[in-house]
Known about the structure:
The two termini are 32 Å apart. With 405 residues, this protein is of the alpha+beta class. The protein has 2 domains: 3-129, Gcn5-related N-acetyltransferase (GNAT) (Aminopeptidase); 132-292, 3-Layer(aba) Sandwich (Aminopeptidase), CATH 3.40.630. The chain is built from 10 helices and 19 strands.
Amino acid sequence: MEVEVRPALPEEMEEYRRVALSALVLSPQVVSPEAIYGVQPDMTLCGFVEGRLATAYAAWPLKMRLNGGTVPTAGITYVGTLPYRRHLGILRSVVTRHFEQMHERGRQPVAALLASQAAIYHRYGYAVVATRNTYRIEPRHLQWINNGRQRPPGSLRELSAQELGILDQVYRDFCEDRTGCIHRSRATWTSGMLRPAPTDSVRFIIVYEEQGSPLGYVIYTIEPQQVTEGDPWQRIYIRDMAWLCPRAYDALWQHFAGFGLVRDIVWMRVPSDDPLPHLVAEPRRLNAGCADGLMARVVDVAAAVPLRRYAAVGEITFDLIDPLCPWNAGVWRMAATAAGTKAERTHASAQVRLPVDTLAMLLFGQITAGEAARMGRIEVRDPEAVSLWDRMLRTQYKPFCADYF
């Protein structure tokens, strides 16, 4: 079977959307169904069999935070293969060609996605680089430990349509030193966090301010639920929350505590280091869940490593295993100094040996080198290198991405 890999033509975009959406039946709680119409032909790279589109694949041009640095990223999106064309290696042909193009063009050293099934993308060197938690809590259980937190001094108000720039500024400040957050364009806001509420629901955008200075916001919808007569019949879905100080965080949650008609509050994309479990009197009432979140793939090691900020200076040599991107494979010297960081080929002996997916987890701060060694994800040849890498790769926050792209 011969597979042709190329972008979809303008006249083939309707078929691209049909193939992609046949595999991804997305809830309006996750993303606007119209978002796929933002995918342009030059963003696609599809697999064709016998002249017909069999595998849909596209990449948004994104910028992502990486411990305070900015990394141009290919945001893989709307990937799907027709059911009768699956397990034939078509997606592998597409992914391999895309990685080759990324390396040749030299503009995006990292690819990232939110997977329908993580196992699919582990085959191509992706790793889960951020954990996504979930909460489902009744408003009456939003009680702080010993009621020890004072009421925040500021105030809450609803933003008007003319003030949405406030959201962008708070979000930028919130993400400044974080890892995994993407830079949001106006289109990203409109099709994502600010998309219209589902039918029969209401959307609210609430900001917390002190002396006129915005320090946090929350975007949520209130939606009806089928319940036993007499029970609370509403549900709150939190879409996005950002805060620049503990007072703002407290105020936003205290806002939800008084919703008497709400059965539960659901937040589907919670940072793994979110403080709420350490603040509420009954953490189990959060009904917290945990799942894989952002997945990422280092496509160009030499270009990706210098874009991240490092917590300590140092030098380490590592032998990288990467069968899909041979330009990455081999021994590298990574040197972080006060003036910047470089990754270059070396003939020196490697202190550690690791696969490319483990490298992504280390760069994003999902796990430490010490944890990777205990898991057997890296082969340690010089034990001192592990503690050095732990110091160099330390992140201020756990990695997290709130957006669906």
